[in-house]
Amino acid sequence: MEPELLKRTIANNIALLRRQAGLTQAELAERLSYSDKAVSKWERGESLPDVVTLVQLAGVLGVSVDALTGTAPPAAAPPPEARKPRLSHNKRVVAALASVLVWFVALLADVVLSYCGVPGSWLGFVGAVPANAIVLLSLLSAWRYFRWNRLLVSLIVWGSLVLVFTALLQGGLCLPKIFLLGIPGQLAIFLWFRLGK
To answer: Which of 15, 39, 143, 179 is the most buried (most CB within 10 A)?
Structure first.
């Protein structure tokens, strides 16, 4: 195969297989630790990935190197729901740091409030559960990683109900029926996420 024809074939196959895998150029680039500009150049045929990157690319797209080079017909990539997207190492570290910060603030509030003699200072820890879920939901949604959204939204609903219940209990009012509000809330969450499918 002529070099220019090979370059054009690889470019077309990368673009086709990336779209079949349901990935943007930026998402593919992130998985390969390249810039989206590099992926764009590969797809336009302006440059080619080196052999090692070609092997990694084939692995990410779920095909053989032969399928990328055109020496074998491109096999369809697995459907998007069959693939398990993963967060990059840096994003996992940022999410963990954000969680640590939420719990640090809850601990700091507890220490300061108990030092000042405020009763119920421990309620900050109860409120840290929905607060942590909100922070993680915001980060993961910004990164377009929606795998944990249903769980995080449920944590926000139930954590908020536990916070309200414990705050009322601290004030001397026992109102366990408040948890009944979680049932329509959970049903709404279930239906909302079914809507997306």
So the answer is: 39
